[in-house]
Every structure is written in C-alpha cells, then in structure tokens.
Amino acid sequence: MRALNQALLLVLLIISSGFAQYGKRISVVLMPFEVVSCANAQLDWVSGGFHHILETRFYKYRNQIRVVDRARIEHHIREQQLVQAGFTIDEQSVKTGKFFSANYSIYGKVICLSDTLVLVNVNIVDVQSTEKISDELYGNVSNLYKNLPDSIVNHVYFKLLQMYHLSLIHI
Q1: Residue partners of 55: CB distance under 8 A and separation at least 6
Q2: pTM
Q3: Which runs of E-coded beta strand occur in the chain?
Q4: Is the pLDDT of residue 8 over 80?
C-alpha cells in the first residue's frame, strides 16, 4: 500500500509540474467558511478569517493553482447578496466561480464538536459540471490556525488535481 501511495504521489507531482511548465493553472474561488455550533468564544475569528488562512497556505501551490483574490470575491458576494437570496451555497459558489472564470469553487464549514475538537467540512465544486465532492477533516481547536489549515490545503490540492485531470479525460 505504501508503494502505491508513493507511486500515486510521484504521478501527481509529475502532472502538477506540467502545469507550471506549460503555464496552465487551476483557478479556484475560495468562499468564506461558515462556523457552526461554536460556543467557544475564542473561535469568533474563524468565521471571518479561516478562509484567509487557507488562501495564504495555498500560496505554496501558486505555480499550479490560482486563488482568486479574496477582496474581489467578498466584494462580489456583497453585491450579489440581495440578488442571490434563496440560492443554496452550492448555487452561489457555482455562480461566483463562473463570474471569476474559475475552474472550481471551494467552501465549507467549521463545526465545533467540543471545546477541543473541530470538524472541518470541505466542498469542492466543479464550476462547469457542478459536480461536487465533499470531505471532512478532524482536528484540535488549537490547530485551527497552525497545522490543520496545511492539512486541509494539501488534501484539497490533491483532490483538485484528481478532479481536474478527470475533467480533461471527459472532454
């Protein structure tokens, strides 16, 4: 199993290096993450700042992934709030992704399970096909701004590569 994981990682690294070589990057809209059932007052910053941390952590993949500037996204969301009343978050993420000509839209929820444990739900939506994959990662509250964002970004990065390459096969 370990050899298979290493082979898969090698293939993904070779493929991702092709993005940089040919100038093709996956374009992503990173939507704000919602905080759900969080009585912990120390986590008030999460609703306004968690996706900012993720955006910063995506920088290490800047040759493969272009994250649309969060100020532009927030401005667009504010302008569209009245227009988009009644739309689901999936529909909003697709519309926002299309507006910015992105390949994918990413959004999620941070759910406090206890004073020390959080669940981060991450959704990746293909803006063209509206196909969605969801995943969950668990972590300690103390790692919300340390290790957990790196784990999420690495996880999402590999999911994006898989989705992008599958979409190329279906063309």
Answers
A1: 30, 67, 70
A2: 0.75
A3: 26-36, 65-67, 104-112, 117-126, 132-140
A4: no
